[in-house]
Design goal:
The chain has one domain. It has 6 helices and no strands.
Amino acid sequence: MKRITHALSGAAVGASVSLVTGEHTLSLAAIGAVAGVVPDVDAAIPLLSRRIHRSAATHSVLAAAMLALAWVVVLSGLSHLVPQVQPETEYVLSSGLAVFASAFVHAVEDSLTVAGSRLFYPFSRRRWRGPVKYDDPIANAALSAAAAVALVLIAGSHW
């Protein structure tokens, strides 16, 4: 799927986490948008892209968990580096959940493509594949529209 699709889906997932945790919708949506795109960061580096793009290293439940763990460690460590920044434990955990869920949804979306992804690695080596190309305009538009509607509904419920 395209970056904008992953970003919108990640934002919707992050905002959804705010419904469950009661944390700040806008910040979790922004975190989710970024985390929704991060699994494709390797595509910006041609040497890495051929070797690891859409591999279990970037598109799996393990990759999403490692990204979330790194986020929680960095956010928790901020209080030691910048004493004025003291994130509350609830926010650290909520944002970590948003990172995990957004990165995993990225892998799920890419599993809809013919290239697929190893969604449940390391628990399964199976590559989940779908019928569409990553740049399919209809698939991208449908996923983006669904994410945008979810964002509007979630944001509207907080006003």
